């Protein structure tokens, strides 16, 4: 009744709707130009051909709405909510690719262009994101050849006492040694910004004026250098004009469907050249290809990426015009979304479709090969079952300090990072890898037994001793239907002859280890799992070590959190500066409450106060 009442009161407005199940978990997010018509269509018979509608409607227990001013706002909000809730009936585009930009820190004294992957709100100028690393390299090479700005990083700039080779060949003006003033250098950075903005003609006009001024002042050598710079820029501009007459930037999409699987292929064409290809895999059991593409395109371009002049898609999208408007606004130029039916663009679609089909074929070959690998592991290692899900453990510590354990999970040959786990050793205070492994395995499988979440195979990094620890844990927890092995790295058996022993696999109740062929797919797979567990453990261990290393004396003071620590360091520059500050300075300069200022002063002057009392 609650849901029916909500359906009667749905507003006629653009917005986003969130469908929830009986547990009040969001299971689907959608956007609409008219919320009333869109949401009610799900509950009408024979009005929606989408495969997932009937199953979705049976699961819906409640619906919420978020009204927006425009459909474009609804589109952006839909993307954000999908990322936030990850509803099971929406496709979730997980694209780990980060795109490169160029940053100019204009607030620095002598800035220079740097390559970055994150755009921050820090007052710097950002240009991009660029389509490829090659495009960035070419842009920076052109800037460094044309404009005599510094090339060295801050760490080198501060330590340099004499100018480098770039100064000698007139490719840098030597800001490291005070050979150029800030105003002159700032003029060079303005020229760099014009290049990055594509305003070459404006830059040429500025340089021509400088050349004439130097010539009038009879600084003929400087005028000649500016003349050469103008010539280089004009040649580059001319090449770009010729190149851009026939080629434009395009993203071309294709797809291939087989059963419930959909493979989407994207070809990135830049200036007529195929620069990159990306492949994405989704399940289609909940929706149609039209719905998948609509959601895919919206999520794809919501990320920070290069936006081309043309987006070529293989199926009609109800959001095509909306997407055009949104992308044009972000790019600052007109962007067109095209679904061609013939001609050159259709041939590009066909190429992308073939690539998508090939991606599916490759995945099938990999799946068949991997199935053979799993069966071979079962036979060779005499396992009880095919190891479709494997959990691997590793221990990392430095002389017993900051000891940690790691567990990685592989399912059907691929890492499942959502199942990775980290363990901080709690009960072992000395160097004892066996005791640490016993703690980690006990903690993991005591809970796994309660939840009925056991894998098919457990791999521990080490030799016969580590295997014995795992078997002891199995005995204590009464686990009898899971296979366990230990994987030991190869070592030198004879220091005189240099004879080496390869990787050894220790299996329960076998006196000698099994030696797998070094080039076999089974051993390569086991090595991959063990190396991933080691990497995961080392990463966590380093994080804890770094946290301990960077511990601040301010951490011991009540009332001083992260924000106040940053403010104090900004105001006084160092711990020593804070130590030397008076209570009045702490209050006045860093705007601290008197009670906190007194606590800080007292912390740094305990010994002095004790002596004065004596």
Automatic annotation (TrEMBL):
Pfam families named in the record: GIY-YIG, HHH_2, UVR, UvrC_RNaseH, UvrC_RNaseH_dom
Q: Name one GO cellular component term.
A: excinuclease repair complex
Q: Where in the cell is it found?
A: Cytoplasm
Q: Could you tell me the superkingdom of the organism this chain comes from?
A: Bacteria
Q: Which UniProt keywords apply?
A: Cytoplasm, DNA damage, DNA excision, DNA repair, Excision nuclease, SOS response
| InterPro entries cross-referenced by the UniProt entry | DisA/LigA_HHH, GIY-YIG_endonuc, GIY-YIG_endonuc_sf, GIY-YIG_UvrC_Cho, RuvA_2-like, UVR_dom, UVR_dom_sf, UvrABC_protein_C
Domain UVR: where?
201-236
* An annotated GO BP: nucleotide-excision repair
> Which residue ranges does the record assign to the GIY-YIG domain?
12-91
Q: Which GO terms describe its molecular function?
A: DNA binding; excinuclease ABC activity
Explain the purpose of this protein: The UvrABC repair system catalyzes the recognition and processing of DNA lesions. UvrC both incises the 5' and 3' sides of the lesion. The N-terminal half is responsible for the 3' incision and the C-terminal half is responsible for the 5' incision.
State the similarity comment.
Belongs to the UvrC family.
PANTHER family, per the entry: UVRABC SYSTEM PROTEIN C, UVRC/OXIDOREDUCTASE
The molecule here is called UvrABC system protein C
